[in-house]
Design goal:
The chain has 436 residues and is an alpha+beta fold. The chain is built from eleven helices and seven strands. The strands form two sheets. Strands 3-4-5-7-6 form a five-stranded mixed sheet, with helices on one face. A hairpin with a 5-residue loop joins β6 and β7. The longest helix has 75 residues.
Length: 436
């Protein structure tokens, strides 16, 4: 049984509802017909809007009570004091205060219905001025409503409401004043209309400035979110490459030695015992490297407990390949490399030798390290022939090598040699992009 927020106990277990809501992205009604309480909306698409678990729009925009109350108090009190400074205008009465309350109270819905509020405040202000009441803070309500309409994307409605207010004021000030209060009104001059036009333009300019700033902030938030997603994707790919290289090499050695142990278990127990020892060592090393990768996930930002592997561990890699029945000949000495390039070079050699063990019929491979022109050339050759359809390695392994090289500004070439066999050629800069 579950209890929806504010609702009664009903329906299937909470775990089932959560799974269904997560899968379908909408509210789930139980067989007994119980509906979640009002205001409850799980994540997913509803209408034209996406609602996330932390989306403040899940229950719709909140009514701006505080700001509306403050604006209303300011407009009413300010208009009261403005009336004392304009004795030629009509004194504020009940009708005038009602118009002020209507113009300011409409701002309560300026986020949900910005177009209606913009025209409503402009109409209330126009009626207020046509009734002869004193000029004053009533224009603040119009300015706030138009600002909200512009920043929410309803620019034409905001401009139209301001144009309606200005056109109505011109009509009253230049023609209808003869029949409207206050009595003996002489109308407005050109200077007063210039002031009104200036005020309208100022409101439009401020609203447009707010809209531009809001769009800029939205773009900045989107750019930050995209950068965060890109960093997460890069980290995910890096971890995937690390796990692939570690597990592919170690499991290949284990697979070969397991086959040797099974074949010699009865005829040569000592050789089978040596194969099992190799399996134990390879699995222990693989577990250690996998644990090191997982530690970086559990403690982000902390230094790893063990140094990252590099070309300095190339003799260990040769010994592991030898235990799998592959003789590796190394030519050249590794130069000093940045940590990232050193790790990439080690993983490329490791993956290339793993592919020889898994996909080549050759039991001999050569690794050459050539330092020239500010770059390190890694050449890994085997004499073949290929033993399967995936000659030279699987797509994931070659793709991982290319991604490692590309991240450092280097290149990878892999393919069959003209004289038979397979070659992997990697060119890595001795200085990473970050160092440059």
């Amino acid at each position: 049984m579950i209890t929806p927020p504010g609702g009664r106990r009903c329906g299937p277990p909470a775990s089932s509802v959560a799974v269904m809501e997560e899968q379908y992205g909408r509210r789930v009604r139980s067989r007994r017909g119980c509906r979640p309480a009002r205001g409850y909306r799980p994540r997913g698409w509803h209408g034209h809007r996406w609602y996330g678990p932390d989306d403040t729009e899940a229950r719709g925009p909140h009514l701006p009570w505080r700001s509306t109350v403050l604006i209303t108090v300011f407009v009413v009190i300010g208009s009261h004091f403005a009336g004392h400074q304009q004795p030629d205008r009509e004194p504020l009465d009940v009708a005038g205060r009602v118009l002020l309350l209507v113009a300011s109270g409409l701002l309560l819905w300026r986020q949900r219905h910005p177009v209606f509020v913009a025209f409503g405040t402009a109409t209330a202000a126009l009626v207020y001025l046509a009734a002869g009441y004193p000029y004053g803070p009533v224009f603040l309500a119009v300015a706030v409503s138009c600002f909200s309409a512009v920043v929410t994307g309803h620019r034409r409605a905001a401009w139209a409401s301001l144009g309606l207010l200005w056109a109505g004021h011109v009509l009253v000030a230049l023609w209808l004043y003869r029949w409207l209060p206050p009595p003996h009104d002489k109308g407005a001059g050109v200077g007063q209309e210039i002031v009104v036009v200036t005020w309208v333009l100022a409101v439009v300019a401020l609203a447009e400035l707010g809209r531009v700033r809001r769009e800029q902030w939205a773009r900045e938030r989107a750019d930050r979110a995209q950068a965060a997603r890109r960093r997460a994707d890069e980290e995910r790919l890096r971890i995937a490459r690390e796990l692939h290289d570690v597990l592919a090499h170690s499991i290949s050695v284990i697979n070969v030695q397991a086959g040797v142990g099974l074949a010699l278990l009865d005829s040569d127990p000592e050789q089978a015992r040596a194969a099992l020892t190799t399996i134990k060592d390879a699995s222990k090393e693989a577990l250690g490297e996998v644990r090191q990768v997982l530690d970086t996930l559990r403690t982000p930002g902390d230094a790893p407990r063990a140094p990252a592997p590099g070309l300095g561990r190339l003799p260990e890699l040769v010994d592991q390949a030898a235990s799998a029945g592959l003789a590796v000949e190394v030519e050249g000495a590794p130069p000093r490399l940045p940590p990232g390039a050193d790790l990439a070079a080690f993983r490329i050699v490791q993956e290339a030798l793993t592919n020889v063990v898994r996909h080549s019929g050759s039991r001999h491979a050569r690794v050459r390290l050539v330092h020239e022109g500010g770059a390190l050339r890694l050449v890994i050759d085997d004499d073949g022939p290929a033993t399967g359809a995936e000659a030279g390695g699987s797509g994931n392994g070659l793709a991982g090598m290319r991604e490692r090289a590309a991240a450092l500004g280097g290149t990878i070439e892999a393919g069959p040699r003209p004289d038979g066999g397979f070659r992997v050629l990697a060119v890595l800069p001795l200085h990473s992009r970050e160092d440059q």
